[in-house]
Description:
Blueprint (H helix, E strand, L loop, with lengths): L2 H15 L2 H11 L1 H5 L12 H30 L4 H23 L2 H26 L1
Amino acid sequence: MSPEMTVLAVVTLFYLFSWLPLWIAQSQTSGFQWLAGSRVSAERPPLPPAAERALRAHDNLRENYPPFAIAVLLLAFTGGFTQYTAWACLAFLAARLVHMPAGILGASWLRSFSWLLGMAATLYLLIMALVALL
């Protein structure tokens, strides 16, 4: 498997489990009964600041994962993988692994820098995918 596809698999696993910090905080705040309930009409009880930041970090990953995944899949489809696309995928992975804890801990400069690095990596991958499609 190519490095890009390996990174995509790792990022996907991270994406699938990124709800854990929020779930833990929500269960400590609201109890398991609230989490296990239908929550159809129940408002979410207030969360502590770190849990609110965990929610925002999770939402941010949900917004940034799809463009990255699409870029990697387009590159796979077009045979556009290079050593530079592998490095860009690793940069995205590193950025996302830093972004969530930095967000939860309230380290705004580190969170912002990691978001910028991940976005730059995604944009590079999308541009390379478009070039490969032409």
